[in-house]
Design goal:
Elements lengths: L13 H7 L35 H14 L2 E5 L2 H9 L6 E6 L4 H12 L3 E6 L4 H7 L5 E5 L11 H10 L3 E5 L4 H4 L9 E5 L13 E5 L2 H14 L5 H12 L1 H19 L5 E5 L6 E6 L3 H7 L7 E2 L9 E4 L14 E5 L5 H17 L2
Parallel strand pairs: 2-3, 2-4, 4-5, 5-6, 10-11
Antiparallel strand pairs: 1-7, 6-7, 8-9, 9-12, 11-12
Helix pairs in contact: 1-2, 2-9, 5-6, 10-12
């Protein structure tokens, strides 16, 4: 049975919400899209007053992503800015529980907070729900990704959220990999969702942006205040581009996910690979190359379509050996290469990657 709204009307599918949310009213000669509002100052007497407090282009983006995630969205200048604002909700001296396999930017920020005595970080195996629940005692926040980056481990969001709330901890989930089309953490008990909108949300590798979504009015007000005071605001043009990218997220993600699944099927038995990691959804795949760092480094140099780059979620397919970054955890295999599957034809991507993999065996 199709879901209905509070008024009894049929609820729109996410694909439709992505296109129609955040639009101007349908009046004659109205713009179909909210324009780029390039202004730092507003005439006094309204709600905005100054460019650090709001922008109509932000509002359109926030309304759309908020509708998709099921909460109120606050746009930020980057994913790291969004993450910093959320972690700053923890009072000085508080404990933050996080996965040992987290995005290196997360690890870097937690390391800095610890070095300054600002917070204590407890790193856990996020797949061990009992261990995570035990670590929640005395914690102020539980922050995690699912799937994790780049190990692609899956967390039990509902169980972890319940355990965290028993101890009064805030639950924050980085939903960058899954997007609200594949997973809505707020529905499973999370208090806050964070996105690097640089990735799948904008989807074209031309925007640096972040976002926070929460269903709590109290948390939303606190996060807006942190954005305003710290000035971690997105530029109007970047916000416009991110919203334009968000409109096509359903079709982009559907294509990329289908290609990722087919690549996983074709790659599983390749002799140059020790392991192919895929959580069963999304468009991120991690492969572990036999022999460790040296052959993995050769692999990323030998393709013509796959681009050696650190970001992900764009229309082009990218990959990188993650342990090349000093902050990547030592429990991540040296030969792990994270693949971000784009929108190219699966046969072309497969042929390009397999040719490079085959060359590793030939030169071994």
């Amino acid at each position: 049975m199709h879901e209905t709204t509070a008024t009894g009307e049929p609820a729109l599918h996410p694909d439709t919400v992505a296109i129609h949310a955040g639009r101007p009213p349908h009046t004659p000669d109205a713009s179909m899209s909210v324009p780029v509002h390039l202004t730092s100052t507003y005439v006094a007497g309204g709600e905005l007053e100054y460019g650090r407090y709001g922008n109509p282009t932000w509002t359109a983006f926030e309304d759309t992503l908020g509708a998709l995630e099921g909460g109120r969205c606050i746009a930020f200048a980057s994913g790291m800015a969004a993450m910093s604002a959320v972690l700053d909700l923890v009072e000085p001296g508080g404990t933050i529980v996080a996965p040992r396999h987290s995005y290196t930017g997360t690890i870097a920020l937690l390391t800095e907070l610890e070095a300054k005595g600002r917070a204590t970080a407890v790193l856990v195996d996020i797949t061990d729900t009992d261990a995570v629940a035990a670590a929640c005692e005395g914690a102020a926040m539980v922050w995690f990704e699912s799937p994790t980056n780049p190990a692609l481990e899956i967390a039990d969001i509902a169980a972890i959220a319940a355990a965290a709330h028993e101890h009064g901890a805030i639950v924050a989930v980085d939903n960058t990999f899954a997007t609200p089309l594949l997973q809505r953490p707020l529905e499973h008990g999370a208090d806050v969702v964070v996105h690097s909108a640089t990735k799948y949300i904008s989807g074209h590798s031309d925007v640096l942006m972040g976002a926070v979504v929460t269903a709590s009015d109290e948390l939303a007000a606190a996060i807006v205040q942190k954005r305003s005071l710290n000035g971690a605001i997105p530029a109007p043009l970047e916000t416009f581009l991110a919203l334009r990218g968000l409109r096509t997220l359903p079709v982009r993600l559907e294509r990329a996910q289908a290609t990722a699944r087919e690549l996983v099927r074709r790659l599983r038995d390749h002799p140059a690979l020790e392991e192919v990691r895929y959580p069963g959804f999304g468009a991120i795949v991690s492969i572990v190359v036999r022999g460790g760092a040296e052959p993995a480094d050769r692999l990323v140099e030998r393709t013509s379509l796959w681009v050696h780059a650190t970001s992900l979620g764009g229309v082009e397919s990218t990959f990188e050996r993650r342990r090349r970054w000093p902050l990547e955890q030592p429990t991540i295999p040296e030969g792990l290469v994270r693949l971000s599957v784009g929108l190219e034809h699966v046969d072309d991507l497969h042929r390009d990657l397999v040719a490079a993999l085959d060359s590793l065996n030939a030169s071994a």
